[in-house]
Amino acid sequence: MNTPLDHLLTTLDRALRSVWATPVAARPMPQPQAPGSDSELSAEQKRHAASLMRVNHAGEIAAQALYHGQAAFARRPEVKTMLEQAAREEADHLAWCEQRLRELGSRPSLLGPLWYAGSFAIGAAAALAGDRVSLGFVSETERQVEGHIDSHLERLPAADTKSRAVLEVMRADEIAHGAQAREAGGVELPTAARAAMQATSKVMTQTSYWL
Questions:
Q1: Which of 7, 71, 111, 156 has a CA positioned 20 to 30 A from the CA of residue 65?
Q2: Most distant CA pair in the chain: distance in Å?
Q3: Cβ(103)–Cβ(57) under 8 Å?
Q4: Residue 47: which residues within 8 A CB-CB, separation 6 or more?
């Protein structure tokens, strides 16, 4: 049986791996059907694409933290298992975004530790409100992330087929996670809570685009 110390050490290990370790994906990085070349991108297009992928990378650090925080305080074992599985799938997204950043000659957000800490606290608070609220939080989060990815697909340079392929698979995974949370009993969050989530996300996306 795990002790509180075991849980603490596991939580710290997950945090350190999410923020500082080089992520390793369990699935191959998605590839475009008609492979493009980054040499087709101008310097400005590369900079813009890298900034967008940095935002997505920051979002995936936040996603890891949210799921870790929710799983740590989930009440039902099946909910904890579902959240941990979703976190593992989201870890693929983190690895893909980081690899794509390297290919574009860029780097992740400098504020990764802040995104993780804040998101873990939010995830833990959602879990402490009960499993149905926590699952509703997952559903709403993934709905907002889906919209966020849609906007990035529109803003990416047409020639950046590599980033587009990654985002399209990420989008499909986010939709699946949201549907799974609703099927497991997630409730719809109040309008004020949804608005607060949007405002928080806006701060992170606008900051990580540059930093």
A1: 156
A2: 56
A3: no
A4: 106
pLDDT at 163 over 90: yes
Share of the chain above pLDDT 90, in %: 51
pLDDT tens by residue, 78-123: 999 999 988 888 899 999 999 999 999 999 999 988 888 888 988 9
Q: How far apart are CA 59 and CA 193, in angstroms?
A: 19
What pTM does this model have?
0.87
Judge contact between 115 and 204, C-beta under 8 A.
Answer: yes
Cβ(186)–Cβ(139) below 8 Å = yes
Structure token digits, residue 144: 């907002």
- Give the CATH class of 40-210: mainly alpha
Q: Quick check: 145 and 176 in contact, CB under 8 A?
A: no
Tell me the residue type at 31.
Q
Q: Is the dihedral of CA 138, 203, 10, 73 positive or negative?
A: negative
Q: Where are the domains of the chain?
A: 40-210
Which of the four pLDDT bands, split at 50, 70 and 90, describes residue 10? low
